[in-house]
């Protein structure tokens, strides 16, 4: 590996962060080997943490154990660097008590938002009194992307959640074109556009009903998606920046993971109104890093709280440091805890 300093190990007592006494941070995420460092938000948050002198540990959600009132994780100290193919180095694995040995846990594994994900939120919730978990695990559990957004229906396109084919047919007849997507999907997977003819609608509903036990989401199609689906990042309720994601040729999906391209953007008055409406509630719930999706400059479609992305493109276009903003917000949260 190309690292010229040893990987730190050893645990530390709880403390506030300073240059001489950095934080110990446990990152619950996907395998380091598989991440794409050019666009991975978690990796860039880790780089920002390391630049501040924080100690980083990496573990996977299945590495969590509850024992004798403690939540443990078999974790490895890790160093990161922005070198493709040589972007991380692990130290020897340790068993960390997440309530006593670390200052911050970042819950950053990708969905699916399934029972495994929900179980991890329940376990991490048990350390919240001692250790700051970002995002707040109870709030993550109670705010799934396509359901939490219903609290802000006034900003949304016409939306239905159902398993009923006749209801979907009626909705299509009312709105002409619709988009059908799984309730707990991610990264643009299994998102379908159904035109006015309704061709294959029955088969599509059958597929959704056989593939998932939960209802699915149906939304009126917004033609403005051709001009982009804007990802807006909020840090502790404040706008950090935005990037416009433009669908590829022949696509309605603009997710970068499925071939969308990123473009510099600014916020419309409507988008600022949406952010101002969401910000206080996100802050109250401890949802410190959130990404919202807005189509056509006015239609809110999702509030992403599990493992939002987009900060690499935002920083590249705007010359900002969203990773640093996230750590500033974490420091402020820790300071408020210490003062309470």
From TrEMBL:
Q: Where is the ATP-grasp domain?
A: 146-331
Q: Which reaction does it catalyse?
A: gamma-L-glutamyl-L-cysteine + glycine + ATP = glutathione + ADP + phosphate + H(+)
Pathway entry: Sulfur metabolism; glutathione biosynthesis; glutathione from L-cysteine and L-glutamate: step 2/2
Reply yes or no: does the keyword Ion transport apply.
no
Q: Which SUPFAM superfamilies match?
A: Glutathione synthetase ATP-binding domain-like (SSF56059), PreATP-grasp domain (SSF52440)
Keyword tags:
ATP-binding, Glutathione biosynthesis, Ligase, Magnesium, Manganese, Metal-binding, Nucleotide-binding
Transcription listed as a keyword:
no
* Listed Pfam families: GSH-S_ATP, GSH-S_N
Q: Which Enzyme Commission number(s) are on file for it?
A: 6.3.2.3
Instruction: Please list the cofactors this protein needs.
Output: Mn(2+); Mg(2+)
- Name the family the entry cites: Belongs to the prokaryotic GSH synthase family.
Q: What protein name does the entry list?
A: Glutathione synthetase
Source organism of this protein record: Sphingobium fuliginis (strain ATCC 27551)
